[in-house]
Structures are given as C-alpha cells and as structure tokens.
Amino acid sequence: MDENIFLKAKEVIKQADSVLITAGAGMGVDSGLPDFRGKEGFWRAYPYAKKLGLNFQDLANPRWFIENPRLAWAFYGHRLNLYRNTQPHEGFYILKNLVESKNNNYFIFTSNVDGQFQKAGFDEKKIVEIHGSIHYLQCILPCRDEIWPADSTQVKVDMENFQALDPLPTCKNCGRVARPNILMFNDFSWIPIRTESQEFRFNLWLEKVIDLNKKLVIIEIGAGKAVPTVRLTSERIAKLTNGFLIRINPRDYDVPKNIDAISIPTGGLEGLRKIFSQFLGDII
C-alpha cells in the first residue's frame, strides 16, 4: 500500500476547519458487529434465517411484524440486545479526539441503526441516522405520528427456534405490536420525524460550513455499494462544499474523478489507526 496516501490524509485533516464523518455497516465490524454482507454473511449471523430461506432484505421488512411478530422481534430483539452489549471500538475515540481538536465543528451521517456513535460520546444533536434507530419504537400501523425511546424495552429471544418470547413490545397508545423506528425494505409505515429533525440540523450546519468558507474534510468509513446512501451523500457534499473525501473501505474503495478524494483500501479501524497513529500529535 502506498504510504503517501496516509501522508496526504494527514495533511488534509490538519488543514481542515470542519469534519464530516460518514459511516456505513463497515464501521461496526471492528466492534464485532455483523455487516450482513451477502447472503452467506447474513446467514452466518442468523443460521435460522438460512433454514427459512430468508436473506437480510427479506427479513428486514415490516410485513413480518404483522404476519409473524415473534419472528420479526427475534431478529430485531436480538440486534437490540447485541447493540446494547457492544462497546464502540478504538476508531470511534480516535475520531472523537479529532473533532474535539476542531472545536467540535463536526457532523456525523450514518446508515447504522446501532447507536454506537452516541455510546462513544458524540453529541446526539450532531448525528443523522438516515435509516432511523433501533433504540426508538413506533406503532406498526402507525396509529399516531409518534416515536418513543426503547430504553425500558426488554426482548427475550429463543435463538434455537428464532422466536421472541412474551411479552412483545407494544404501542404505548393503542396496544398493538410495536416495531423499531427503522426504515426497512418496502416500508410505507416508517415515521421519519426524528431523522427529519436530524437532517434539518445537519443542513443548517452545512450552510454554515459553506457560508463561512470552512475547509471540510469528509471521512467515510465502511460504506458499501449495496445500499449506497452514505457513499452518495459523501460525494454530493464533497462536490457541494469543495470538500475533500477520505474513503476507507477494504472492498468498495474506488472514488469518483470529479471530486477531491483519496481511497484507503483497509477496514475502518485499521485505516484510522494508520492515518492517526504516527500523526495524531501533528494533526491535533
């Protein structure tokens, strides 16, 4: 690997006034979380789904909360418990030190629903969770345009039979089964109000970055092409702000030629360590 890319990344980060962190599923892999890459990757995490012939896209569908809520909550309940019990890896804290060195002039845009950035101590008001969060619930209908925290929700899962056990989470208003406030596939009942508020704050921040002519560095970690929301956002904002994109990805590391960008073909934590380990004192 060309070591010059790390020198270039160091220089860009050092000169930046503001930081946008964009993250996909690859960000959580170094914490031990599955990224569900391909059928086989998903089935390794959920062997019972293989028995049912269901891939991630099949199972991450709101219809199961109506047709088979025990199956739906087996999947999402297991993930809720997993994310609660997972500690953010070192890379989160490397980024935390960085943004603190930039007077906390940062924002985070992520497709992850796991809440790991909040757990690592990033400001809740500086995060866009574009696909929602597993730590919030809503009604399956929904009966009202309302979401609420899942803090007190406990879901026990029989992993052998892949069934959630009673009691299932219920809507605080009508008593029907509740579901996570996550944007699923073929989802026409997701309530987007929390994510829309996050996007509103993000757009205000972006306007300031542009108006004050701040130098923006975009550090993208583990955002693949299968659901390219994060990648496209990184590229769009790099173009909009004349910012510089650092794309860290072991597989989908190519970058467009019409923006200032470099690619680092490693996993998230490895890439962050290589950028910052020898340079962190210089940068911050």
Q: What's the topology here?
A:
Elements: H1 4-15, E1 18-23, H2 26-29, H3 38-45, H4 47-52, H5 56-59, H6 63-67, H7 69-85, H8 90-101, E2 106-110, H9 116-119, E3 127-129, E4 132-139, E5 148-149, E6 157-158, E7 163-164, E8 178-182, H10 193-211, E9 216-221, H11 229-241, E10 244-248, E11 260-264, H12 268-276, H13 280-283
Parallel strand pairs: 1-2, 1-9, 2-3, 9-10, 10-11
Antiparallel strand pairs: 4-5, 4-8, 6-7
Helix pairs in contact: 8-12
Structural class, from helix and strand content?
A: alpha/beta
Straight-line distance between termini: 25 Å
Order of helices and strands: HEHHHHHHHEHEEEEEEHEHEEHH
| Main sheet: strand order | 3-2-1-9-10-11
The tally of helices reads 13
The averaged pLDDT comes out at 94
Strand content: 15-25%
Q: What Rg do the Cα atoms give?
A: 20 Å
Number of beta-strand segments: 11
Question: Biggest β-sheet, characterized?
Answer: 6 strands, parallel
- What's the shape? globular
Spans where pLDDT lies below 50 across 5 or more residues: none
Helix content: 40-55%
